[in-house]
Amino acid sequence: MDLHAQHCYLVGMKGTGMASLAVLLARMGCRVRGCDRDEVFFTDAILDQERLICDIGFSENLLESDTSLVIYSSAYPLDTPVLQAAKKRNLPLYSYPAFIAELTSLQDSYAVAGTHGKTTTCSVASHLLREASDSDFPFYAVYGSSQTGGQYFPYYGSECALFEACEYQDHFLGYDLRAVLVTSIEFDHPDYFRSLEDVKRSFEALIDRLKGGGIFIYCADDEGACGLSEYVATHRRDLTVLAYGFSAPPPFRIMQNGPDLYTLALLQDRPFVVRAKAKALVCDHIGALVLSLAMLLDRPKPRLYMQDQSLITDEILPTLAASLSRHLSSYTACTGRTEVLLQQDGVVYIDDYAHHPTEIRTSLDELHQRYPDHKVLVIFCPHTASRTLAFSHEFARALSRCDALIVQATYASARGDGPSGMDPAEVLACQASCISSYAKDDYTAMSLASLWLQERWLCITMGAGNNRSLCERIARQRRSLS
């Protein structure tokens, strides 16, 4: 596929993955335009900065006469008018995961998969490859966010690429991968997978599809990822296997030397800073380092890309690891992942995408360690009714670690799984053991938060819904009340 010659139209352009793809395609030389709802997302700022036009609505009249390719978010069904118009014109039509699969076939492709930590690991790896090579490493990356305070979705070439690979509906099984890093395997996506065993089988199928002589990287602290490593040992002996984590064997065993200070078994006399507190997040940062090593050493001439070429010696692994690890301290954060939005009147406002019980526990652990003297209010958007019902008890246990909880209403996804009868979110609010309440709309959530918040509190918008803007609105409302 010659991307330079394409005029691409993206339906659902404001989605995190779709916005990332829109910027990437523009930097690859495509003409890019798209459409979405008339609702403000954090990606609006990204698209505006890149001067990418996003039409409002999904009318069949939106496609220009020279549109050559249409890519759509899986949130929108094929009977959406603009997609119907594309079909009538026989335009190439790709879902987002199908187009990502197409991209993976164009160069050596590497991916991060797992129930949690995919986006953060991709973001940190992109940061390391960029900083350690002075932007000379010829790669691009597509993942569901961006690094805060940095350039959005940088494109440095297409010799190799890094992707966030999602197991939902087995999407990642269409990917053509040289290597994969697996952060974790737990039960998720209950509308598609019936059990944890189904999830495991999907990851095993991913391993079966890796290119011969490829690379498998996994977190040794995660039970599911360790189980997959056993499958690799039996069924894919041709793969290079690398384990990282606090319980991993050398060379990538993580050891803590002090607050924010870590090292690896192969770098015992060279500690480095990781700006994360929770062990799971530290693992994501180190996993990114191991993945970056693998991508660099998989190139024919890794020396070409490093700032200090004298570092590449006969002991290539520790010297290259030391070079990469220096840049972990300059990693800021991932947009929407424990991201501090503002501080006002003694309250710290934070946005966090955590929407699985394990992710929620990790995020709250991170924030409790960052702000040990603060109380925590979580405004949780539990996403769909089916998901909330499936994980209700686990959500309640995880969210009970906060001091106060506001649970927002669920909503129907493109799969039509909206609540019938009592909203499962209301049940969830009753199950939590902290102070909690159900908010049927944004106004109710804002009113409750404005009353409950005091100095030395964290106000966290959490979950997979678009509730990020509540932070600024609550801060404004509290200001008007004072």
UniProtKB/TrEMBL annotation:
Note the superkingdom of the native organism.
Bacteria
Q: What keywords would UniProt list here? A: ATP-binding, Cell cycle, Cell division, Cell shape, Cell wall biogenesis/degradation, Ligase, Nucleotide-binding, Peptidoglycan synthesis
Q: Has the keyword NADP been applied to this entry?
A: no
Check the record and name the Gene3D superfamilies matching this protein: Mur ligase, C-terminal domain, Mur-like, catalytic domain, NAD(P)-binding Rossmann-like Domain
Tell me the first and last residues of the signal peptide: none
Q: Keyword Cytoplasm, does the record have it?
A: no
User: Which SUPFAM superfamilies would you find in this protein's record?
Assistant: MurCD N-terminal domain, MurD-like peptide ligases, catalytic domain, MurD-like peptide ligases, peptide-binding domain
Any one GO molecular function term:
ligase activity
Q: Which residues form the Mur ligase N-terminal catalytic domain?
A: 9-105
- The segment(s) forming the Mur ligase C-terminal domain are 336-465
- Residue span, Mur ligase central domain: 112-247
Q: What is the protein name stated in its UniProt record?
A: Mur ligase family protein
Specify the species. Sphaerochaeta associata
Recall the taxonomic lineage recorded for the source organism. Answer: Bacteria, Pseudomonadati, Spirochaetota, Spirochaetia, Spirochaetales
